[in-house]
Specification:
19 helices, globular, five-stranded parallel sheet, Rossmann fold, six-stranded mixed sheet, 15% strand, single chain, alpha/beta
């Protein structure tokens, strides 16, 4: 049976359900499959709906789940909470193909995994005899937070604490989180950036003092971030789904190669494409699209990962990241050496830099500036009437650069990761509107709707009129103490 191991060498081999429950390994490493399963027969996927295809792709990674358990999770996750029956439709516009991953309850691609992760948690708890309350810690650069809150809403035996960087997410993203209802939903604004939130979360998951408090209160931790393997595996499915849709529409012959361009921050979304490639999907290139925080595109071009640079606040905030956690998994799969991975992560923690050669594995690093991103929004709309959000526009501009420089004519799919209404202020700027004020002001989704002739999605309409229920704020230095307080508070409810 396939087992999971830590990227940093912790010797214990565990099942997929145990890895999902833990979230992170005791040595601070991330869980990865010790080997990749056998390749999937592509032809069998062509006529499957999304839930059945997702089950077929996930099953080899999760052999300790029965068919009824895993298929049941998929059917429950990918149903009427999505506003398109295809779940992730493929749209052709401006001579490229967009895989729209934003038709879930929070209008962002994080729903594709976070709609199913809570169900994994419930099944996994039963399999592993866990009856303790599971406290889900989440750090977010904008979209993961609300998707986690939505996914875990009302799930018995769980409570979700989301930490987000104050002033560094869009107004829509912030209100989506802070207006969340539910007895098991909690949101904390951290005075810092996303990397700070991520560091706090990782420290809490392994900190002896926090874990002692957790043990005393009879609870256990897990994470809904992409450091949790239960987030990564479901994302692999939509690469196969995109390929099947391309074949069915006649844009590809079965077995032909395809490129994917992915707007990339924490590296989980594009790493799922690498997993799909290892499972037999004929991926030629995975184009890693960075915004001006181009730590990843620089890494693939220079073989040096260097976080020692200012974090730039951009209009694509989910990509405003300098420490891309999931890259650690790629280092492990390429090097096959946990000791080396630990040394690299230690170097990153101490010096902010490490060197590693990841060439030859299909990744291309390309970046797009803010100006190029805004121009792409306007160009694509002018050509086809299609409206991209700011992250998808980074990917489009990056793909245009790559295709021009490489002369690569391979069919390409751009992963469209969020609704343009979530970033309406900057999308309007890209469309050439003379906007005043800032993205923190009210009314931008309604103004974008008027501009493009499409109604504001009901899930984010009238956000400004909803009651803000979560007003907590902490300095980043105090957030770990808050988590200890939170453990005590949540256990009294």
């Amino acid at each position: 049976m396939l087992k999971y191991v830590s990227t940093r060498g912790h010797e214990e081999r565990i099942t997929s359900s145990a890895a999902i429950l833990r979230g992170i390994a005791p040595d601070g490493g991330l869980y990865v499959p010790e080997e990749f399963p056998e390749k999937i027969e592509l032809g069998k996927l062509l006529e499957m709906d999304y839930a059945r295809l997702a089950y077929s792709v996930m099953k080899p990674f999760m052999p300790d789940f029965t068919e009824d358990e895993l298929l049941g999770c998929a059917r429950a996750a990918y149903g009427d909470k999505f506003d398109d029956p295809l779940i992730a439709p493929l749209v052709s516009a401006a001579d490229v193909n967009f895989l729209e991953l934003f038709h879930g309850p929070t209008l962002a691609f994080k729903d594709m995994a976070l709609s199913i992760l809570p169900r994994f948690m419930t099944v996994s708890a039963g399999k592993n005899g866990v009856s303790k309350k599971i406290i889900i810690l989440v750090s977010t650069s904008g979209d993961t937070g609300k998707a986690a809150l939505e996914g875990f809403a009302g799930v018995d035996g769980t409570a979700a604490l989301v930490m987000y960087p104050v002033g560094k997410v869009s107004r829509v993203q912030e209100l989506q989180m802070t207006t969340t209802e539910g007895d098991n939903a909690f949101v904390l604004g951290v005075e810092g950036n996303f990397d700070d939130c991520q560091t706090i979360m990782k420290r809490a998951l392994t900190d002896p003092g926090v874990l002692k408090t957790l043990e005393e209160r009879g609870a256990t931790f897990s994470s809904a971030n992409s450091i949790n393997i239960g987030r990564l595996i479901p994302q692999t499915a939509y690469y196969f789904y995109a390929y099947a849709l391309m074949v069915k529409k006649g844009a590809l012959k079965l077995g032909a190669e395809v490129n994917f361009t992915v707007p990339t921050g924490n590296f989980g979304n594009i790493l799922a494409g690498y997993y799909a490639k290892k499972m037999g999907l004929p991926v030629k290139k995975l184009i890693c699209a960075s915004n001006e925080n181009k730590v990843l595109s620089d890494f693939f071009n220079s073989r040096t990962y260097d976080k020692n640079r200012p974090l730039i606040m951009t209009a694509s905030p989910s990509m405003d990241i300098l420490v891309s956690s999931n890259l650690e998994r790629l280092l492990f799969h390429v090097s096959k050496d946990a000791g080396r991975v630990k040394a690299l992560m230690d170097s990153l923690a101490v010096t902010g830099v490490y060197d590693f050669d990841a060439s030859g594995h299909g990744f291309e690093g390309v970046c797009a500036t803010q100006e190029e991103m805004l121009r792409a929004i306007g160009d694509v709309f002018a050509k086809s009437g299609y409206v991209m959000d700011t992250h998808t526009a980074v990917a489009y501009a990056s793909y245009e650069k790559y295709a021009s420089a490489a002369g690569d004519k391979t069919p390409n799919v751009i992963l469209s990761t969020a609704s343009p209404f979530k970033f309406a202020f900057d999308v309007l700027k890209g469309l050439g509107e003379d906007v005043e004020g800032s993205g923190a002001d009210c009314g931008w989704p309604e103004k974008l709707a008027a501009r493009i002739g499409v109604a504001v999605p009901p899930r984010i309409s009238n956000l400004e009129t909803r009651t803000v229920r979560h007003t907590g704020r902490r300095k980043k230095e105090d957030a770990l103490d808050y988590i200890k307080e939170f453990i005590n508070i949540i256990q009294t409810r």
